[in-house]
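Teaching assistant's notes for section 4

Start the section by putting this record on the projector. Ask students to predict, before seeing the second block, whether Porin family protein will look compact or extended. Collect guesses on the board.
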Amino acid sequence: MKNLFPLLLILLLVTGKVAAQDITRPQSTAPVAFDAIQKGNWLVGAGIGNISHNFKSETFNLNIMPRAGYFISDNAAIGAQALLGATFYDGGENFLYGATPFVRYYFPEGAAPTHRWFGEATAGFAGSSMKDSSGDAIFSSVFGLSAGYAHFVASNVALEGVLSYTRTNADISVGNGMSGLSLGLGFQIYLPGRGNR
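Reveal the predicted structure now:
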């Protein structure tokens, strides 16, 4: 019992010391939205969350959509997005490709230091290695309109939620759907231009 008392006393002191320490929470927001979308800055990123497997049809989909843009003025950027993807299924595979230039505008209305609403328009081309099926074109134009929300989690990184309408006749999936609505997640990195460093 005599040996137990000092051990309990040391345990109590260590526990009290650990509990008294200041715990730093990870950063989840940054007040930098106005600095990130200035004229001369660059925008690079990608759509994420577009990997899927269908157990009934035994198909696996993987699409990568990297993008890059340049701010031609405060709040307005132009750029291009590439579509690279593959669908694997029992009996074959289908490779996807495309390029869609875009124009994006961040709305000053409803803006805050940590987030911005934006609208985007895309127009380009897309296609696939799949043979013509059900009258769908192998190679086709792509048009789309999107509305989104960018939440800045660091000085130059934003997480985005985007609702899009895309119109295409190609045998592809742009985002999460062919012609129609899709909801996607993405991230963007904002790099300062020469004059904004």
